[in-house]
Amino acid sequence: MDRSIFHPDFKARPFWWEAIDIGGDDPPAELPSRADIVIVGGGLTGLNCAIELGRGGAHAVVLDAEPLGYGASTRNGGGVSGGNNVGKGLSGAKGRQSPEEMRDWLRSIMGDASEGLSHIEALIRREGIDCHYERTGRFVGAWTPKHFNGMAAKIDALNEFADADASMLPRERQREEIATDYYYGGMVVNRTGKIHPGLYHRGLMNAAQRHGATLLGRTKAGALTRVADGWRVETSRGPIMAREVVIATNGYTGSLTPDLRRRLIPVASHIIATEEMDAGLARSLIPNLRTLADSRRILSYYRLSHDNRRVIFGGRARFTQATPEISAPILHHMMLERWPQLKGLRITHAWTGNVAFAFDYLPHMGVTPKGLHYAMACNGAGVAMLSYLGAELGKKLLGKSNRMPVFDGRDFPTRPFYTGHPWMLPVIGNWYRFRDWLDRRAA
């Protein structure tokens, strides 16, 4: 391994944590004996749900086994989708034979997914959250000419149903968006944004507390027992009674809710942050300061940091957890494939977090047969999607929803004998790498 790619001050922790104090040293709040709603999971879903409940006059208690914000909510790349990548592969279109049925399905799915961006923008304004949010748009690079044509075939639907303000950019104009010839052109999607995940999560915590929520980190939820007037929730600090329980654990869903766990595929996403670079060089890499992604099966997503001095580069270096010594060199190499001009730029931070995929590639919200509410399965678009679904779940629990999202109550599929342990991911990862290689060779 080339140790020269690591900065002397390298840290195996998220770059975003430099701006926040994860966990802190303050003593945790006292565990109340009763709440209207207990929410298991202190990430974006749980906090958005708690804020909405508090605004409606309900008392929410948010439990997290780790310090609040320890999971993917502060470990992601900070891209905020506008509904442009929901339902990869159009799995939910199966059985919709007529063009009218397909259009209706696309309109409902993409239209609801696009509400995630609207929700975040309104929430940040209303709650005064300072998290460096910008609607800068996204460039999605085409791995092959065939991928470019595939994007072009979907652009009308994106613009009509998700209001994406998207357009195709041919390869000869690619450097208007990214200083590389690595791709075969791509798609520009203007209705997307970027955010500082750590500051966004911290702003959600503050807002939830202002609206009356009790936030309890380092408090693990245990047995969930139905009682006459709701639920008894055992925790590592004692029991609490609640009218309803929300499961908001997404990529960290575990043995507490095995029926939900077997419907989710947790996938590790790995990210690095580089040392600061010259401001002119940084700006030349992404002239319009967009977030970047590509159409490879082994996905990469990247951007500049909030101060436009570092590259934040993420992707599927491994489909499972891996140490920085394994994942960081892979991501560094992937970054140099796109930007050879960054050779010699060192890594200051490297980290990993879990995203959760559903078997149908769609987000899900609903109630289990036992009566537990849930919202999960971000499929890589969690900042916008889970924030939105968390808030919508809060409205639903208050009885104040004008309509239910299309993702509520849908069939949440699993597979025979699957228990939630994604043993097959390394095999799938190798197959995806081979397919990417084959596609590129053909191009």
From TrEMBL:
Region (Disordered): 75-98
Pfam families: DAO
Protein name stated in the entry: NAD(P)/FAD-dependent oxidoreductase
Segments of skewed composition (Gly residues): 76-92
InterPro entries named in the record: FAD-dep_OxRdtase, FAD/NAD-bd_sf
GO MF terms, alphabetically ordered: oxidoreductase activity
Source organism of the structure: Teichococcus globiformis
Keyword Oxidoreductase: yes
UniProt keyword annotations, A-Z: Oxidoreductase
Higher taxonomy: Bacteria, Pseudomonadati, Pseudomonadota, Alphaproteobacteria, Acetobacterales
Top class in the EC scheme: oxidoreductase
Residue ranges of domain FAD dependent oxidoreductase in the record: 36-393
Enzyme nomenclature, EC number: 1.-.-.-
